Amino acid sequence: MDTRLLDILVCPICKGPLDHDKKAQELICKADRLAYPIRDGIPIMWADQARDLQVASAAD
Ligand SMILES: [Zn+2]
């Protein structure tokens, strides 16, 4: 997807920057430990759609 689009996307909860996990197709907010899914190239920026990273064990 367009990386410039990612530059303007912020977390809807904390308004912080997001990391793009290209492999998982998710946008990661490290502050909230949430992963927002990208479906068909469109980021789903809804808190209730986000995956909780505190439960899953991150590879890093
Ligand atoms: Zn956040």
From TrEMBL:
Top-level lineage group: Bacteria
InterPro entries cross-referenced by the UniProt entry: Trm112-like
GO cellular component terms given for this protein: cytosol
UniProt family annotation: Belongs to the UPF0434 family.
Protein name: UPF0434 protein GCM10008066_26260
Taxonomic source organism: Oxalicibacterium faecigallinarum
